[in-house]
Amino acid sequence: MKIRTLCYTILVSIGLLFVACGQSPETAPRKATVAAEKKSADRKKTVRVKHLSGEILAVNTQTKTMTVRTRDTYMELNYDDSTVVKVDLDAVSPAEIPPGIRATVKYVDKKGKSVARGIFISTETADKKEGTPQSSYRNSA
Hints:
This protein is an alpha+beta fold. It has helices at residues 2-21, 31-43, 123-130, 136-140, and strands at residues 50-60, 65-69, 74-78, 84-87, 90-91, 101-110, 113-121.
């Protein structure tokens, strides 16, 4: 009889210990809140930044647009005040871009228009292409 009472006492004390160490209802995660957060995260559209490399044919400062020719197509891009334009790591305005120069453009599609976020021009690579080939393979062929 003593052993049975002792076993019951131990089991009850272990049960009370589990209840006391469990999470309080305020800090327990709610499934409804987690589901609502997942739905709101799904609703946010991700903005995809696209890249293109080509020749800038014209820059129109009146309409804030530029025409870029890639291999096969001509593309008209808009730009705004937040567009970054760099020539050899120096920041310049879009009006200072010389026509006919090659550039790499990062842009996003926004409300049906392609808006340039960054225009990067390197004049050093153009100078290297005009010089003599550095490979002996090209010289011998």
